[in-house]
Amino acid sequence: MKNEAVKIYQSNTINLLMQFDTKHDKPYGNAFQREYCLGTSGNELYISVSSPHSYSGDLTMDDFAFTGTTHRLLTYIRELYTMRMTENIDFSVKDYMVRCGLKDRKQARKQLERDLFALLSVVYTTQHGRAAILDSYEMHHGRVYAVLNQGFIAEMAKQDYFLLPMEYFSLDRQRLNYAPALLYYMVMLRYFNSKKSNKNRISIRSLLAFAKFPTIEEVRSTRNNSIRGRIVEPFFRNLNALSGVARFHFYDERKNKLTQQEVQALQYDDMLRVIIHIEWK
Prior knowledge:
Elements: E1 5-9, H1 12-17, E2 28-29, E3 33-38, E4 45-50, H2 68-84, E5 88-92, H3 93-100, H4 105-121, E6 122-126, E7 129-132, E8 134-140, E9 143-148, H5 150-156, E10 161-165, H6 167-170, H7 179-192, E11 201-203, H8 204-210, H9 216-220, H10 227-240, E12 246-251, H11 260-264, H12 268-271, E13 275-280
Antiparallel strand pairs: 1-10, 2-3, 3-4, 4-6, 5-9, 6-7, 8-9, 11-13, 12-13
């Protein structure tokens, strides 16, 4: 990977947190404490969301949302910890805006406040115990001051870091809402399969699942039930947004390389059998 990249500590649990998205994940519980369950049998991540005791601002549980911008902030905080190795994280709003390519300071500060509130509101439980992400945070004089939870720090120490392309931060979360997750998953699998011959091969099926594209059943149950318009076209549009990071080559189940025309003509069922070979730039 020749493009500029940053070191990010990670773990299986953190990578599950990077999939948590309240736009798609359905809670159980009540209005005061929402519960979520992610992962697979034997690797479950239970997430509890409630109004944090250390918070004294104006946001409430009605404002809680854990989405792509929250993932971006969590990743930025992990980068800062990887560099500084201290529980006390501080950064300027200006630096964060520059990193993420944000222009509107008022909107950036508002979104940053919401994402910090989301990180503070989450407590997660695995088979190894219970922890939070943040213990507290403050925003004043154009800076953010946050304290990482010791359990989250211990989680980051479980595995080595991987290198995440800088482009991850500046991808447009509104127009290309799946692209950051697609990139993150590709880098994650490259790390976990680093000693295997398939480290740069990935199925479209697994990309769709990690990035939480709607399932075919979900699409069919809505008025806007175009499978091509809701899954196929958005997938390739978001994947093409990563062309500055990598080149993508498509192969069918018989290991035949597909032409550009064949890729453009793929239907949903055909997509699920396609393997992408990633050529990092």
